[in-house]
Amino acid sequence: MKKIKLGFCPSHRAFFNLEWAKLMKIRCIEVFKEFQEIEFVYPDEKILENGLVSTEEDAKKIIDLFSKEDIKGLIIGTMTFGKELPLLSVAEAFRNFPILLFGTKKGPFTNDGNRLSDSFCGTLAVSSGLIRRKIPFQFAGIVFPEETEFKGIIQNFGRICLTVDGFIRARISQIGPRPAPFETCALNEVTLISTFFQRVIPITQAEIFHEANKLSSSNENVIRIINNIKDRANCELVHQESLEKMAKLEISILDFIKRENLSCLGVQCWTAMQTIYGICSCLTMGRITEQGYPTACEVDLHGALTMLLQYLISFKTTPPHFIDWTIQHQKDRNKFFAFHCGNAPQCLVAENDSVIVNKHSILTIGGTEGTAEFQLKEGDVTLNRLIEYDGVFKLLITKGRIVRDNRKLRGSWSWVEVNDLKQLYKTLINEGFIHHASMIHGDYSEALTELCKFVNVVPVGI
C-alpha cells in the first residue's frame, strides 16, 4: 500500500533553549520512523535554520516544501514555546487537510532557575488562533514523543488523513435503481456534492449484464475466478453455470470500477439480478469488497460510503461486512444477530468454519444461487452507519465483539455482543439510523470520532 504523506512542522521561540528544541525535534522524528504506513515530511537545516519554524519567512519555506511533497495532513508541534503567527500561516495554507497539534513537555530547570521550554503555555496561543480562524484540528496533548498514548494518536491521525483523502471527492457507483420498497436507501446526491464533493456514477444493470454475457465460458479470467471460488468454498450446492455467471459478473463490475476510477458501489441485488441475469450477486459483492471496493446491497449508497470509511480507517487492511440489524439473541439481552444474505468477504470466515456457496435463504424467484454462507470470525468490531437528514450528515459510532456460536445458520452472520443493546437500539430509532449498517473487525471508534470534525459529519457515539 502507498504510504500516506504527512507534514511535520516543528516550531521554536528564540527566548527558550534552542538545543532543547532541536533535541525534541530529533526525538519526534525517531518516533515517526516506527510507523510503517506513514511517510513524514519535515524541514532539515538546509531548508530552515536549525530545521525549526520561528519566522514568517520560515513559514513560507515550509509551505512550499509541503506543497511540493503533496502532503495529506499537517502535524504542528511546539518544541519549546512555539511561534503562533508563523504556525498559523502554515495552518491556513493547509486548512483543507486534517491538522494535529501537540506540544512537548518541558525539560529540567537550568542551574540559574530558568525554563528550557514552555510549550504548555505557547500551544494555547496556537490553538486559540486555529479556533479564531475556524480551522478544525485534533489536539494530541503536551507529551514526550516516546509516550505510548502519543504514538497511538499519531497512528490514528494517519488513519484519519488517509480516510479524508479517500473519502472526499470519492466516486460512487450506482448499479441499477434502488429497490422500490426501500425508501430507506433513497439519498440526495446534491448533499454528497456540496458536503463531500463526491460524485455518483450510475449505470444500468442491463449494461453490466450485457458486458458479462459477452464473455466466453472459456475466457481465462472466467476460469481463474471459478477456480478461486472453488478453492475457497464448498460449491456442491450450486451449478457450474451459476459459477460461470458469478465470474462473468465480477469481471464486468470490476471493469466498470476501474474504467470509472470508483471507490465504492451500491448494487441492486434483487430482483432483476435473479429474474434477468439468473443468479444472486451476494458472493460476487463480497469478493469485490475484499478486493478493495466496498460494495453495499440494495443500492444503499450511504451504506457503501460507511463501508468506505471503515475500509480506509483500517489503512485498507480489513474489508467490512455490510449487515442488517436483525434479531436480539434469544437469551443474552446484549447480543444481536449481524446478518446479511451471503455477501461477507470470505477472508472473514470463522476459524475452523467453511464457506458454502448456496441458494438464497429468502428469495425464491428466478436464479437464486450465489450466496456465500458462513459464520464470521470472533473478535472486536466497530459498527457504523452514515445517514443524512436536512443536509446534515451523522455517523453512528459504536463497538462490540463477535461471539462464537455453534449453530449452523443461513447467510453470512455473527452474534455481536455490545455494552447496552437497549440503549443502542434506542439511539438507532431516535437518530433515524436505518436497518443497514457496516461492521469491521478492530476498534476504530476513536479515530472515526476524530475524523468527523474534518469531514463535516456529526458523530453519534454509543
Task: Please tell me about this protein's structure.
The protein has about 450 residues and is α/β, with parallel strands linked by helices. The protein has 2 domains: about 160 residues, Rossmann fold (3-Layer(aba) Sandwich); about 290 residues, L-fucose Isomerase, Chain A, domain 2. Helix content is about 40%, strand content about 25%. The strands form 3 sheets. Strands 10-11-16-15-14-17 form a 6-stranded antiparallel β-barrel. It has a 5-stranded parallel sheet with strand order 2-1-3-4-5, sandwiched between helices. A 4-stranded parallel sheet has the order 7-6-8-9. The longest helix has 21 residues. It starts with a strand and ends with a strand.
Determine Rg (CA atoms, Å). Answer: 25 Å
Strand order of the largest sheet: 10-11-16-15-14-17
Structural class comes to alpha/beta
Task: Tell me the domain tally.
Answer: 2
Name of the top-level CATH class of the largest domain: Alpha Beta
Summarize the model shown.
The protein is of the alpha/beta class and 462 residues long.
